[in-house]
Amino acid sequence: MQKLIKTVTLSVALSLVGGCSYLGVYKRDLTQGNLVTQDMVAELQPGMSREQVKYVMGSPLLEAPFDADQWDYLFRLDEAYGGVDQRRVTLTFANDRLVNITTEGDLSGDIDLTAPDGPGPTPEGVGPEDNLMTPQPSPEEIEEGAP
């Protein structure tokens, strides 16, 4: 009976300690929305058409459902081991022309979106298998190089 109690106690203790991790959980930065910078907003001028605004800013993340004359560009960066950076640009149109620009958050700060070195998922287009394909010469290049 005493051996059973020791076994059960040891099992419970190992189960509780096994749930703890000293290495921590891998976290990654989470980006959402349209990246908005001060340079992009500086290019906007009142009187620009919607197409010109799309060329500078890209497609809006949100178009107001009841007011098609308002576009919202939102960006949120939740750093894995840091804070949260939020930016918002609201553009208002009248007669398909830009009339008002409203900004929230610090647009002047640079945001580093490069993947950190070390363990974790590899971004697409960076792995060793991406270098296996070599470009094939065109038929014109083959004919020029032929003796």
From TrEMBL:
Superkingdom assignment: Bacteria
Assigned keywords, A-Z: Cell outer membrane, Lipoprotein, Membrane, Palmitate, Signal
Chief place of localization: membrane
Record-annotated Outer membrane protein assembly factor BamE domain positions: 33-101
Region (Disordered): 105-147
Recorded topology in the membrane: Lipid-anchor
PROSITE patterns: PROKAR_LIPOPROTEIN
Localization in the cell: Cell outer membrane
Family statement drawn from the similarity comment of this UniProt entry: Belongs to the BamE family.
Biological role stated in the UniProt entry: Part of the outer membrane protein assembly complex, which is involved in assembly and insertion of beta-barrel proteins into the outer membrane.
Quaternary structure and interacting proteins, as annotated: Part of the Bam complex.
Protein name: Outer membrane protein assembly factor BamE
Gene: bamE
